[in-house]
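Exam review. A common question shows you a sequence with its C-alpha cells and asks you to describe the fold in words. Practice with the pair below. Do the first one on your own.
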Amino acid sequence: MSITYCVECGGLLKAQDDTVYQCVNGHLFYNNPSAAVAVILLNDAGEVLFAKRAREPAKGKYDLPGGFVDYGETVYEAVKREMREETSLVVGELVLVGSAANIYLENVSTADTIVLAKVWHGQLNPQDDVAALEWKPLHFMLSDEFAWRSQYAPEFEKIKKAVEQT
C-alpha cells in the first residue's frame, strides 16, 4: 500500500497487518477489497465471451465481462447490470462458480465472484469500458492476453468443471 498518511488527520499511518492501518492519532484505515463480479457467458459452441479492455488497468488485454458491485446491490444484480452496461445483453439464470482475489490498481483490490450464464438475449454491442467482445475457448483465461491470468489460474479447474457440467 502506498498511502502513508491518515485521510482524517494527516498523521503517519502504521500497518497493523495487510488490511488494518492506524495513524499516530488513533484513526483506523482499512484497506479492504471491493466486491466485484465476473461472468462466464457460454455460447452453444462452448466458447466464452471475453471483453477487450478499453481502459487501464490492463488496457488492450482481455477480461470476463463484469465489474464492481454498487452500494446496496447483490452480486446477482451487479452481474445483470454489468452485462447490460458492457455487452447490451440481458442474462437469465446464473450459477455461482467460484471467486478470485485480484490486485486491480494500487490500493484497490477486488474480491471477484465468478458466475456462469448460458441463457441470454439481445445483440452483442461492446459499451462502457469494453473495446471489443470476442468468443474464445475457456483456456484463453490462462494466456498472457488475459488481464488477470495469475489471479484466475488457481480457480481454473473449478471453473472448467462447472462449465463442463452445464
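Now try the second one, then compare your answer with the model answer below.
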Amino acid sequence: MDNKKPHNNFFNYVFSQKPLIQDFIRELMPDIAAKINLESLEKDDTTYIDEKLKEFYSDIVYNCEQKGKHPIKITLLFEHKSTPPTYPHLQLLEYLMGVWNYNIENKEKLTPIIPIIFYH
C-alpha cells in the first residue's frame, strides 16, 4: 500500500472485489450489464502499461464474456484520477494499444475494451 496515495489505494481495493464491481456495473451501467455475463468477470492481473509509465498510471482490468450467440472476451478497464484528465483519450489509447499489442504478441484475437475513467 502506498500511504502517499490513499484515494488510489481505496479505489484499487474496492474495484478488486468482484462482487463490488458486479454491483457497480449492474447499478451504474445497466446497458453494459445487459450485454455481458457478470458471473464471468475475472480480474486480469496482466499489466498493459510499460515500465516508464507505471509510476503515473495504474489500471484495473476485468475480462468477461459477452451474452449471446457469439461469446467474445471483453475487457473493462478502470482508471482512477484525482482530477479530470486533460487528455483522457490519449491515455486510454495507450492502454488500448497495450492490450492489443499483448493480443498480437500472443497470437490472440483483438479484445474489445470498455474503458472507464473515474475522477474525484
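Model answer, second protein: Strands lie at 36-44, 60-66, 73-81, 113-119. The chain is about 35% helix and 25% strand. Full marks require stating both points clearly.
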